[in-house]
Amino acid sequence: MALATFRDESATGRPLDEFTLPGLPDRISARELVRLRVREEVARYNAAPSHHFRGLVRPTDAEAELNGYRMRDTRTLDWEKQADAAEAAFARNGFLLLIGDRQIADLDTMIDLTADPVLSFVKLVQLVGG
Question: Is the dihedral of CA 47, 72, 17, 99 positive or negative?
Fold first, then answer.
């Protein structure tokens, strides 16, 4: 069983937040890792709901703010809806997933957590202008 570190980073590589999950299989798909990450962050939020959610993707009816999202109402979140939203965000380049020194381009990619236990998520901000 492997231990994985889920790390959020800025576009310049500066660590913003991280947590670890033990007991994961040695080999797992990138899709399963994204879904595990979202399930964990939603479970942590649902254990003590507040007006601030720190997660990979924005919940419905939440506003983006520095280092997270402002919830209009304190409520429990559905981790599966959040995980589906994370997969959709990945597909439209809403964030990058880096394993070690390589970028993952396909969620079906198998990851060896014994070789690369640090998973870096870099949220991308769309530029406005024209």
Answer: positive
Contact 7, 120 (CB under 8 A): yes
Percent of the chain with pLDDT over 90: 78
Beta strands 2-9 and 15-24: pairing type?
A: antiparallel
Per-domain boundaries in the chain: 2-123
* Distance (Å, whole) CA 116 – CA 26: 10
The answer, yes or no, to whether residue 3 has pLDDT greater than 70, is yes
Residue range 26-42, pLDDT digits in tens: 999 999 999 999 999 99
Are 71 and 59 in contact, with CB atoms under 8 Å apart? yes
Distance CA 6, CA 97 (A): 10
